[in-house]
Amino acid sequence: MRGLPSVDRLLADDAxxxxxxxxxxxxxxxxxHRAREAIQAGDDxxxxxxxxxxxxxxLRAPSLRRVLNATGVIVHTNLGRAPLAPSALARVGEVxxxxxxxxxxxxxxxxxxxxxxxxxxxxxLTGAEAALVVNNNAAAVLLALAALAEGREVVxxxxxxxxxxxxxxxxxxxxxxxxxxxxxGTTNRTRAADYESAIGPGTAALLRVHQSNYRIVGFTASVAxxxxxxxxxxxxxxxxDDLGSGALLDVGDEPTAAxxxxxxxxxxxxxxxxxxxxxxxxxxxxxxxLVERLRRHPLQRALRADKLTLAALxxxxxxxxxxxxxxxxxxxxRMLDEPLEQVRARAERLAGLxxxxxxxxxxxxxxxxxxxxxxxSAACAIEEALAAQLRLGEPPVVGIVRDGRxxxxxxxxxxxxxxxxxxxVLRARRALC
Length: 433
Hints:
Helix content is 43%, strand content 16%.
C-alpha cells in the first residue's frame, strides 16, 4: 500500500493534468481504490497511472450511447424501443437547436398551446375530436383516470389487469390516480352482463385494457369495444380504452387507434414509441370535452411532453399522411414488413465477412406488442465467447446467446450496419487472442 502513488502525483501526469481537475481527481481516486482492492486480494495492482488514464476516459465518455441491435427484437425496451425516422430526427435538430414557437401563437402573438403542434395530425389520423400528448402511455392512463374518476369507481375486467415491464401494473395506476377499481368477470371470461351489473351510483368510467404483452387462448370470452361503448353510453359513462402499443395502421392483430375511436371509445390512450415508431410519448385522443378535462387537470403539467418529444412526434406523424411512405420510412414498420430474402442476404454478407454461419431464426416485435407473432429471420452465428467483448466495444453490439453460439440477427440490422458489426467482431476476436 505504501508503494502506491498519491492523488497529487497521479494528477501530475500529462493526460490527467490536461483534464478538468474535478474529473482528473475522481479518476485518480477510482484508480487508487481499484489498486488497493487488488493488493488486498493478493493481486498485482498494475500500472496505477495507466489505470487512472483509463478511468478518465470512462468518465469523459457519454453514458447514453448508440447500440447496434442484433437481437432480432424490433421494439427492444432495453435498447430504447423505436429508432426514429430521419425526418423525425431532422425535426428534433431544427427545433432543439433554436428557439421555437412551443407555446406562442404566431398568428395572434398571444400565448399558445404546445398540444396544438400535433393535435391536428392526431385528429386526422384517428378520427377523434381532440388529442393530448404526455410523456408516456402510463402517464396518459394515469391522467385520464385521475381527471375522470378520482374518488370514484372504475370498472375493468379481471382478464385485463396486466403487468408490463419493470413491474408496472394497471391496478397500481388505478390506485395512484385516486380511482377505486371494480373487477368484473374472471381471468378468461368476461361478459357484457358483468359490466352492467357492476355499474352503480359510484361508477365514474369503464376501462378497457388491451392485453399488450400476452394473450389468453382457449376457453375465453370478452366484450368487444363497440359493445362496451354501448354499455357505457347507456349508463352515461365514458369508456377509456388503453391500447398500449398504439398502432396507427394495420399491424398483425393489434387494434388501431382509429378503430377504437370508430367503435365508440370516448378516450383512447396509446404509446408513441412502440408500433407508432416515434419518440416515447403517451397519446390521448377522443371526445373534445373529455380531453379538455385532462388538459386542465393539475397532473397534466407534471406529465406533459417537452419540445423535443413533440418535434419528433410531429416528424413521425407527418409520414403517416402517406401510408406506403410510413411503411418505408418508419424503421419499426420497415423491419416488420421486410421480406425474409433481404434479411437473409444481410446475414449471409455478415457471415462472409467474419467467417460465421447463417442460421434461420425467429425475430420478435417486442415492447409488449404482438406477443405471439414470430417473424422469420436469419442470423450470423459466431462464437459465444465474443458476446461480452462486443457488448463492451464501441459501438456496443448486442446479440442473442443460444445453444452455445452468439446469434447476430439481421432483421434488426440495417444494410449500413453490417460492415460496422463485422469490424466489431474482428476487433473482439483480436482482443481475446
